[in-house]
Each structure stands twice: as C-alpha cells, then as structure tokens.
Design brief:
Order of helices and strands of chain B: EEEEEEEHHHEHEEEHHHHHHH
Mean pLDDT of chain B: 86
Shape of chain B: elongated
Oligomer: heterodimer
Distance between the termini of chain A: 28 Å
Radius of gyration of chain A: 25 Å
Number of strands of chain A: 11
Low-confidence stretches of chain B: 311-316
Largest interface: A-B, 81 and 67 residues
Number of helices of chain B: 11
Helix content of chain B: 40-55%
Strand content of chain B: 15-25%
Structural class of chain A: alpha+beta
Number of helices of chain A: 14
Helix content of chain A: 55-70%
Radius of gyration of chain B: 33 Å
Distance between the termini of chain B: 87 Å
Largest sheet of chain A: 11 strands, antiparallel
Low-confidence stretches of chain A: 1-24, 375-391
Structural class of chain B: alpha+beta
Chain lengths: 395, 338
C-alpha cells in the first residue's frame, strides 16, 4: 500500500519553469509566474454551501414526480440532477464543484441493486434454505461494491476541470474489510447457525464491538488513501483509538439515558399501577438518548476523519458537535412529519449548509502541487467507451 | 458579437485564471491572461443548467471556461441535452405546485385503491401451491426453535375440531389445500395462525380458552378467511411496494432523520394488516352462518381473550396489526342478528 507518499513537503516549493514546461507558456504558466504565492504561507480556502430551499424544492418535487410517473426509471436522472445541485452549490475558493455522472450507468447500478435485493428478499421469505449462500455471495461481492462506488464517485466528481480518482482494487478492499477474519466468521456463523450457543455469540458480540472502531479506521484509511486528486493521494492519520473514544462516549450517553430512565420508571411504578403507560412514556427519553448518541457518533467520527485527512497541500478542520447534529435531526424530523414531507428539501439544504459551515479547508503550500497532466485525456477515452462495469452502486 | 466574462481552467492545474470568451458567428475566441485560443462553436460543450449557478463550457483542447448563467449559452451544443427540459420544468413554481398535487394524488390513490386492487389481482393469478414450501418451512422452523411443542390435546378433542374444520372447508375453492395442525405453544398463548399455503395452526391454549365447539370453529373460520382471500401473498406484495415507495419519497431525508422513513411504513403497513383482519372476520361470519354456526361465538371468545390483556388496546389503535376488539365484537354480533 503506497498510501502516505503524499503529505505536504514544505522543503519542495513548486516551481514553474516556462522553458521546462512547454515550448510556449500556456495561460496558467504565465498566470502562475505573475501571481506566485509565498511558500510556507497558510491560507484558508473558503468552503461555502449556497443551496436555497425554495430552488431545491422545485428540483426535488419535479424529479420525484417524474420518478413516480415512470415507475422508478427516472430515479437515475433524478439522482444526477440532485447531485449536480449539491455539487454546483458547494464552492471552494469561489469555484463550484462539478458532478459529471451520467444517468445510464446509475440506472444500470440501480437495476443490479434491485436484482440483488429481490434475490435477498425471495430467499429471506420463500427459499430460506438458500439464505446462507446469498449471504456468502453478498460477502464476496461487498468489496467489489465498495470499490466500484468509490471509483464512480471519484471519477465523476470534479473541481476546476480536474476529476478525482480512486485506484483501490478488489483485492485491497477484500483485505481491508475481512482483515481479522471477523466478518467471514460472522457469515459462517450465520450460515451454520452457531448463534444457538449463546456463550459463543456473546463473546463474539463483545469482541466485534471492541474491534469495530479499528475496522472503521482501516476502511476509512483504505478509501482516503486510494483517492487522489491531481496526482496526490489522500493521507489518513487517525488511529483506531480515536474512533473507539467516539463510540465509547456515545455508548455512555445511551447508557446514561437508559439507566436514569429505568430508575425513574422504577420509582414511578412504586406509586402507580399504570405499567403500560409508564412503559410507553419511558420510550421517549430512551429514544432521545438514542438520537443523541447517534448524532454524537455522526458528528465526531466525521470530525476524526476530516481532521486527520490531508490531500496534497490541503488539510481540513471539522468542528461538528453532537448537540448541533441532534438539534438538526430532531427539528428536521418534526418539520418533515408536520409538513407531510414537503419540508424534506428544506431539511436537506440546512443539513448540507450546517456541514459546510463546520468544515474549513486550509492550504499549506501551493495548489499547483496538484497536477492533472495527461490523465485527463486517458479518462476521456475511458468515459466514451461503453464499459459495463461503469456502474454506480452507491444508492 | 457577445462577450462573456469568466474563469479558465486548463485541466492540468487547479488554478482559476480570469478569462473572457467572445462569440462571433461560428467562432469563439477565448482570452485567458495573455494567451488566447480560437474554437469553432460546434466543438464546445456546455454543462447543464441547474439552479442559478455558473455554467462550464468544455473546450476541445481539454480546457474549461466557467461563467455565470447566460441565455446565450442555450444556443451552444449541450453536454447533456436530455436535462434541458428537466431544467425548464424545475424553474417554474406552477410546475412545482402541479407536481405536489400529482404526487399527492398518486400516493393516496395508489395506497387506498391501486395497490390493494393490483395485489388482489396478482395474487389471484399465482397458484397457492407456490406458497406451500414456505408454509412448511415456517412450521418446521417454529417447531425447531421451540416456539411450538407437540399438542397435549386428547385424540377425541382433536377429532371433533378436525371434523368441524373439514365441514367448514368442504365447499371452498381452495378446499384441497388446507391442513390443520395442533400445537402447544407456551409463550405464544391462545392463538391461531394461517401459514402460507393453507396450513392452519391452532394452539392448545386457544382450544382451552374456547367454551364451546362453535367458538373454536369461529377462530378456524377466521384463519380460513386469511387463506381463502390470499392474505399472505397480498400482504407481502403490498408491504414491499409500500416500503419501496416510501423509501423513494423520503430518500433525501433518510440520512438526515432516523425516524422519518420508518414511521410512515409502519403506519401504512399496519393499516393494510387491519383491513385483512376485518376482511377475514367478514369472511368467517358468512362462512359460519352458511354452515349453521352463529358468529356470536366469535364475539364471546374475543371478549374473553381481550380481558386477559385489557390495557393494551386503544392506545395503539393506529399502529396495531389487528382492529380494536370492541369493533370486531360489534360486527360479529351484527352479523349474528342478520
């Protein structure tokens, strides 16, 4: 794994030498020469999300309507339109991102996903004897799905006329996902019904829960390390311990809510016999605890990922808060329910804005460290050919 | 001549260079910084319009020119022509309001009429034999997992119930597909199930809870109703379509709000389930009268069972899989009087 060859090297300031570059200097070269940045200087690239709820509402409803009218076929076009909206309203240093995905590969991906779901559904409901084999096939295919969707997303995301790339392969993904043999063990266990033995199951659940943060770290490291932009691969330096801390605190939050609710319910039960009512009321704080714990994981694992990611001269600072995310989730859910779904687009916009507002992009070095070079030409040919495996599997 | 201000990106460095493009007839002149390039207009490709954001013009050289949206850009070759009409629709509030109305009508009509009617028709075309393996597997699984144990009822009781059951089914279209199974089921208590394919299970507790043979027949008639009306298959069809449609509509919100996607599915599916229960009740009342039993036996049994777990009702009416007992009892008494 050649991952970390890409951290910013301050001792190597980028030089543009007209004689060396091309016979005649292009517009960028001359522009660079005239507007040379000071090496070692740090500056912030403004990241802004400018989507508007009223504009996105119209896009959402038109695409939803067409999707329902075409019995789902239009959903691939709808995805492209929505992604275009999100990307083009996110600007970095004043330039919007570009989504270049095309509907047909997405449609293919959805057909494949639908077929896989049908197989799973049929075996789950009608041919239960086949279920272990379906799980086995799913486990074999999972790395492929991860790799394909990462590659698709990278390849069709562009900034300043340069696309991202993902160069992870099936074998790498297989290694990263199943590294400790934990998941195959789980799959085998499900296949041969080991779970009947409660002691085995309990031990496995505990082992798996504790290993999970390290597994997430490896997966993130795999995805970030194999994603590149302008010839620079991402570098990821977070440790499993940092993820463990996030999950552990969220577990404590959940436990605190459960225990205090339990104590309160026990006290109330001493005074009244309406046990059904108390059981129902107890669900409220338990659910609140769940939302808070979930929001905490979302916010802080996102922070861990961004704050330990570097891409060439860029590093990131994410300042999401569990409280903020929980507030967002709750107000979103309430408004969506109260408006019978009509406020979904508004909720999407404010969530994206909240995320963008809490992410800073810092540049330490020159953007010209990113070089598109000739990869672009190769890519253009690749995109023209009808490649069956050019499918978007990220639903 | 039209001149558009913007930025140029050469595709080799992520550097924005202020630039202008001048269009004269079939000719486009790009001036970026100190250099310039001339292109034929029909070799350009303009990115689709979305909202009010900037557009990108791809040049045959691999470079790209970014500029604010401009009506003139519509006359240039488009990178994704199929999106043009969609963008046109997306810009209009009238279209959006019509969209809300159409979506609401489609969802309501589909939910209340279209989907149940379609599921009924499809179920009628699929022979019940296809469900039989599933029913056998389900029973075998319940036996294996210890939910069910062999019945403790004596042979005479079993025979009496079996004979009544055979009389009930004797004239029904699916009469040859029924199989009655007796099981003891401690944890489940007094209950009866219609498994896929025509297998009906009645628990010992249910037989004991009944105070007359007519009450047992009433329960069996209800389960026969589920089989005869193909409720297993219809609920699988209706529930899966509901889940897919809800997932499509709430796709954007699913990742934002944990509760949003699950709740409507639950409410929608339990409504169908209550309708099936009511339909099976109505079927049972007709069948019982036809065979000379009184639906009133169903009412008395339901009331007795309800007393055993009284408090739960009402509060959960909208998320309950079964109709409220009082309503079922009222209907059974009304059917008995007719």
């Amino acid at each position: 794994m050649a991952v970390c060859s890409c951290g910013y090297d301050a001792s190597r300031p980028f030089k543009v030498d007209p004689q060396e570059a091309k016979e005649s200097p292009g517009p960028i070269e001359t522009f660079l020469l005239r507007n040379k940045e000071m090496p070692g200087q740090q500056r912030e690239l403004a990241l802004k999300f400018r989507g508007s709820a009223s504009e996105y509402f119209r896009i959402w409803i038109v695409n939803l309507c067409l999707t329902l009218l075409t019995l789902g076929i239009f959903s691939a076009w709808a995805k492209v339109r929505k992604k275009r909206y999100f990307y083009s309203h996110t600007t970095l240093d004043g330039t919007p991102f570009q989504y270049l995905g095309q509907p047909v590969p997405i449609l293919k991906g959805r057909v494949i996903a639908a077929a896989a779901f049908l197989v799973y559904y049929a075996s789950n409901h009608f041919f239960t004897s086949l279920l272990p084999y379906v799980f086995g096939a799913g486990a074999v295919l999972a790395p492929w799905v991860i790799v394909r969707s990462a590659a698709f997303n990278a390849r069709y995301s562009a900034f300043r006329n340069m696309t991202f790339h993902f160069d992870g392969g099936y074998a790498d993904a297989l290694k990263e996902i199943y590294v400790w043999g934990l998941i195959p063990f789980f799959v085998l266990g499900t296949m041969f019904n080991w779970w009947g033995k409660y002691a085995v199951a309990a031990v496995l659940v505990i082992v798996f829960s504790f290993a999970f943060p390290w597994w997430i770290k490896r997966l993130k490291n795999f995805l970030i390390g194999h994603t590149s932009y302008g010839g620079r691969n991402g570098a990821f330096s977070a440790t499993g311990g940092q993820f463990f801390k996030v999950y552990f605190i969220s577990g404590l939050i959940m436990a605190a809510f459960l225990i205090s609710t339990g104590l309160l319910a026990a006290m109330l039960l001493a005074f009244t016999k309406k046990s059904q009512l108390i059981a129902l009321l107890a669900l409220v704080p338990i659910y609140a605890g769940y939302v808070l714990a979930f929001a905490y994981v979302q916010a802080h694992s996102s922070n861990v990922v961004w704050n330990h990611t570097r891409l060439g001269p860029l590093r990131f600072q994410s300042t999401l808060l569990g409280r903020g995310m929980a507030k967002l989730y709750v107000t979103n859910a309430l408004s969506i329910i109260a408006s019978l779904g009509l406020l979904i687009p508004w909720a999407v916009m404010r969530t994206l804005k909240y995320r963008a507002d809490n992410l800073r992009v810092l540049q330490e070095g020159e953007l010209a460290e990113f070089q598109g070079s000739d990869l672009l030409a190769v890519e253009a040919i690749g995109a023209e050919t009808v490649d069956f495996f050019d499918v978007d599997l990220s639903l | 001549m039209i001149t558009i201000e913007g930025h140029y990106y050469d595709g080799r460095w992520p550097i924005a260079v202020p630039a202008t493009m001048e269009f004269t007839g079939q000719d486009a002149l790009l001036t970026a910084n100190l250099t310039s390039g001339r292109y034929a207009v029909d070799t350009l490709k303009v990115s689709p319009r979305i909202g009010k954001t900037d557009r990108f013009i791809a040049l045959p050289s691999g470079g790209q020119f970014q500029c604010a949206d401009h009506a003139f850009l519509e006359s240039l070759p488009q990178a994704s022509p199929s999106e043009g009409p969609v963008a046109w629709l997306e810009e209009r509030w009238g279209v959006a309001l019509a969209g809300v109305a159409i979506v609401a009508c489609m969802l309501l009509a589909g939910y209340f009429f279209g989907l149940p009617a379609a599921a009924e028709r499809i179920a009628a075309r699929i022979p019940i034999e296809t469900e039989q393996t599933l029913g056998k597997q389900a029973l075998a699984w319940l036996d294996e997992q210890g939910w069910f144990t062999p019945t403790n009822l004596d042979k005479n009781t079993q025979k009496g119930i079996q004979d009544g059951f055979d009389r009930l089914r004797s004239e029904l279209p699916l009469k040859n597909h029924y199989q009655l199974e007796f099981r003891a089921a401690g944890a489940i208590g007094a209950n009866a199930f219609a498994l896929p394919g025509g297998t009906i299970v009645i628990t010992d507790d249910m037989v004991k809870a009944a105070e007359s043979p007519d009450e047992v027949q009433a329960v069996l008639a209800h389960e026969i109703g589920h089989v005869e009306l193909r409720h297993t298959l219809r609920s699988v069809l209706q529930n899966s379509v509901t889940a897919v449609v809800v997932a499509t509509v709430t796709a954007d919100a699913a990742s934002l709000s944990v509760a949003v996607a699950g709740l409507p599915v639950l409410v929608a599916q339990t409504k169908y389930s209550r309708e099936f229960e009511a339909a099976a009740d109505a079927f049972a009342f007709r069948l019982l009268k036809q065979k000379g039993h009184s639906p009133a036996a169903f009412a008395s049994l339901m009331e007795r069972l309800a007393k055993q777990h009284e408090q739960e009702e009402r509060a959960f009416a909208y998320v309950s899989s079964h109709p409220v007992t009082a309503e079922r009892v009222k209907r059974a008494r009304a059917a008995a009087k007719e």
